[in-house]
C-alpha cells in the first residue's frame, strides 16, 4: 500500500475573538458530538478547542495561510500512511468541523 496525500483547509472569515466567542457559546457535549467523540466530563473540550484555534490563526511551520478569491484560509497536509500527515492537521481539522471560523 502507498501513501495518500491529504490536506485540510479552514477558512478564516471572522476575527480570532469572534471564533473564540463562538467556541465559548458551545456546550462541551456539542463540541464532542462535532468531533465525533463520546462526551467525557473529564475532558476539557473548551480548552482543547481554544488550543486548536491557535493553529488556525497563528499557524506553525507545518501549516500556512493562503488567500483565495479574497478569502483567507489556513491549510496543512502531506502524505499519510493512515496517520495525520502533520502535527497541525488534527487541530486545524477540529476547528474546521466546529465551523466557528466561517
Key attributes of the depicted protein:
alpha+beta, 3-stranded antiparallel β-sheet, single chain, 102 residues, 4 helices
Q: What's the SSE blueprint?
A:
Layout: E1 4-11, H1 16-25, H2 28-34, H3 45-57, E2 64-68, E3 71-80, H4 89-98
Antiparallel strand pairs: 1-3, 2-3
Helix pairs in contact: 1-3, 3-4
Biggest β-sheet: count, sense, barrel? 3 strands, antiparallel
Q: SSE order in H/E notation? A: EHHHEEH
Q: Evaluate the radius of gyration.
A: 14 Å
Strand content: 15-25%
Amount of helix: 25-40%
- How many DSSP helices? 4
Which structural class fits the helix and strand makeup? Answer: alpha+beta
Uncertain segments of ≥5 residues (pLDDT<50)? none
> Strand order across the biggest sheet?
1-3-2
Question: How does this structure look, described?
Answer:
Helix 1 packs antiparallel against helix 3. The protein is an alpha+beta fold. The model has no long low-confidence stretch (mean pLDDT 96). Helix content is 39%, strand content 23%. The chain is globular and about 40 Å long. The chain has four helices and three strands; from the N terminus they run E-H-H-H-E-E-H. Strands 1-3-2 form a three-stranded antiparallel β-sheet, covered by helices on one side.
A few lines on this structure:
The protein is of the alpha+beta class and 102 residues long. It has four helices and three strands, in the order βαααββα.
Amino acid at each position: 500500500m502507498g501513501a495518500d496525500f491529504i490536506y485540510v483547509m479552514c477558512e478564516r472569515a471572522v476575527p480570532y475573538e469572534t471564533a473564540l466567542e463562538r467556541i465559548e457559546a458551545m456546550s462541551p457535549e456539542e463540541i464532542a458530538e462535532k468531533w465525533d467523540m463520546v462526551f467525557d466530563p473529564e475532558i476539557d473540550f473548551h480548552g482543547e478547542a481554544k488550543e486548536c484555534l491557535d493553529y488556525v490563526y497563528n499557524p506553525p511551520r507545518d501549516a500556512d495561510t493562503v488567500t483565495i478569491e479574497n478569502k483567507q484560509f489556513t491549510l496543512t497536509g502531506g502524505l499519510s500512511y493512515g496517520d495525520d500527515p502533520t502535527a497541525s492537521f488534527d487541530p486545524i481539522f477540529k476547528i474546521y468541523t466546529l465551523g466557528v471560523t466561517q
